[in-house]
Amino acid sequence: MSDLTLILLSAGSSSRFGLDVKKQWLRVDDKPLWYFVAKKFQKSGYFKKIIITSSQDDIEFMKFFDEFEFVVGGSTRQKSLQNALKSVDSKYVLVSDVARACVSKKLLKKIISSKDKGDCVVPYLKVSDTVVYQNETINRDDVKLIQTPQLSKTKILKKSLNTKDEYTDESSAILAYGGSRYFVEGDKDAHKITFIEDLQKLPCLKKPSKEILSGNGFDVHQFENGTNLFLGGIEIETNYTFKAHSDGDVALHALIDAILGACGMGDIGMMFPDNDDTFKNIDSKKLLKEVVKKVHNFGFELINVDITIIAQKPRLNNYKNLMRKTIAKLLHLNVSKVNIKATTTEKLGFIGRSEGVGVMANANLKYIDWNDK
Predict the structure, then answer these.
(1) Average per-residue pLDDT for the chain
(2) What domain range is 330 assigned to?
(3) Is residue 256's pLDDT more than 60?
């Protein structure tokens, strides 16, 4: 059995990327970038175990894709690595960044075959341009551009990171600890995605799939005594209200479920539990805004939504256009992409007895096309 563990670092916030999408969630065909990279490494057959670091916000969704070992990362690259190393029991560990998407099997083999030539094996690129440091021209042959993945002896890496000092790569920490590093020539195709223009430098990345993702949602709320109710993002003057943990906006709740369903991200109860006082009496527009932000961060873009409100009361003809405009603004869509329908049950059932309201919602989404950005 291999005595090598892979750690893939994927807990970053993509603050320098230039889009409000986390780069680890950009799609390669229909696969998130982090998953595409993990599967490439897995197919090599070199690893005893694969550990992927993730933000707390992302980890549950990541678990839906595959049974890798996931670890919540920290506020820095180094802290994420320290968290992951707690689960490593192999002699060697290979650490790579998910943003380093096109690591070739040739480079991987070169690194692994050199594992006993130093405490850390480091791929690097030579510099062909003139190099100036602090206004002095220096010998470019003395300059190395350091890449990942880097292979380290696990015990030494763990000890070298037991410090308050922050290092941008494993070899720097090991060298500061007194260990040795061994250089192997890297690969220009193993370019790291830092800015959006870097995507065009990576030959292994396919364009995002153009498939349409559809989801539906359904929700009901009963009436109780009160004043005014919220429906479709607007307040309607009534002498009754919805019985609910939040403001009870059944239309927005059904819409949230439709959006999450299209993305495969569970349901409203998973994101906003009704036993959490954080969401007590909360404005459902805030919940919808949070969902829209999250699905966009995870690489999805809304196309259109269609909502059917089933209610004997209140009468909604005079409110539908305002609902459309309100929801369109929340979804960052043109009003033409938001449809609102209202119907009754012809006085049949609990809705027909004016005991509550039911709503069905449908949402269509697509993957954000980074190739057009």
Answers:
(1) 94
(2) 213-372
(3) yes
Examine the fold and report which residue of 178, 201, 224 is the final residue of a domain before the chain moves on: 201
The total of structural domains in the chain comes to 2
- 95 and 146 in a common domain: yes
Q: Tell me the per-residue pLDDT of 13-31, one tens digit each, with 9 for 90 and over.
A: 888 887 888 999 999 999 9
Q: Is residue 217 domain-shared with residue 245, that is, in the same domain?
A: yes
pLDDT at 1 over 70: no
CA–CA distance, 74 with 249 (Å, rounded to integer): 36
Residue 12 CA, chain-centre distance (Å), reads 10
Quick one: 175 and 221 in the same domain? no
Give how far the C-alpha of residue 223 lies from the chain's centroid of Cα atoms, to the nearest Å: 37
Judged by average pLDDT, the poorest of 42-46, 69-73, 224-228 is 224-228
Query: What residues contact 183, with CB distance under 8 A and at least 6 apart?
Result: 122, 123, 124, 144
Instruction: Read off the CATH number of the domain in which 179 is found.
Output: 3.90.550.10
Average pLDDT over residues 291-312: 96
Coil, helix or strand for 286?
helix
Helix %, strand %, coil % for the chain, to 5? 30, 30, 40
Contact 369, 207 (CB under 8 A): yes
Pair (10, 79) in one structural domain: yes
Decide: 184 and 114 in contact? Cβ < 8 Å.
Answer: yes
287 contacts: CB under 8 Å, gap ≥ 6: 246, 252, 253, 256, 268, 271, 272, 279
pTM confidence score = 0.90
